[in-house]
């Protein structure tokens, strides 16, 4: 009679369970890599507070697909990500890193309005540049920072392609411009008069109308809250997380003891 000879298995997880755990970790890494590639976002795990980092780089792509040679931020990726972040209770804060030349006005304003309307604590950090429609995106967070070497370009709305040479076309552009000015002044400390004067400045740009602000000038004029680096922005976000009211009615405030 043949006896079955088994291999001794020490107490603990079986090889099958261990393999499943490894597969799960591998899948999480692949999902995170895909998230970085598609939307430029990442969620650090081993941190004091769980925050989501979202990048707005290159040109904001709107209704029209840009050339593959352009580095773009696609709004159809960013908008669902913002909705998911606002719903996810495990995410305590959102860090937005900006280095953008601008792009589609309506797409940029749509993203900025969503960020401004979030209950999730948000902080923006401008590195390199926050130009054109990047200005509303920069001020949309609850607290904004800019590194000393960064700059911001403020200029009137530009139109690409054919435009009818009638008064209605100019009126439409003025209305779009008013929407941008209204958003920026509502979400920063700069006045409408100051922002319009920067936008219509004819003495600074050689081939265009507008102004270029350094990091210190942007803070001095009330456009950005503070000069700061990455560590300053993270510290500011942690402070917002710890002092903000609960996002949900059944959520326990973070600054109270759980007893």
What is the CATH architecture annotation?
Answer: Alpha-Beta Complex
| CATH top level assignment | Alpha Beta
Q: How many structural domains are formed by the residues?
A: 1
**How many strands, what sense, and barrel or not for the largest sheet?**
7 strands, mixed
Q: Roughly how many Å is the radius of gyration?
A: 23 Å
Helix content: 40-55%
- Total number of strands: 9
Question: Topology as H/E string?
Answer: HEEEHEHEHEEHHEHEH
Helical stretch count? 8
Helix-strand makeup class: alpha/beta
What global shape is seen?
A: globular
* Average pLDDT rating: 85
In short:
With 259 residues, the chain is of the alpha/beta class. It has helices spanning 15-39, 75-87, 105-116, 134-139, 167-186, 192-199, 215-220, 230-243; strands at residues 41-42, 51-61, 72-74, 93-103, 122-130, 143-146, 151-154, 211-214, 226-227.
Description of the molecule:
With 259 residues, this protein is of the alpha/beta class. It has one domain (39-243): 2-enoyl-CoA Hydratase, Chain A, domain 1, CATH 3.90.226. The protein is built from eight helices and nine strands. The protein has helices at residues 15-39, 75-87, 105-116, 134-139, 167-186, 192-199, 215-220, 230-243, and strands at residues 41-42, 51-61, 72-74, 93-103, 122-130, 143-146, 151-154, 211-214, 226-227. The strands form two sheets. Strands 1, 2, 3, 4, 5, 6 and 9 form a seven-stranded mixed sheet that branches. The mean pLDDT is 85.
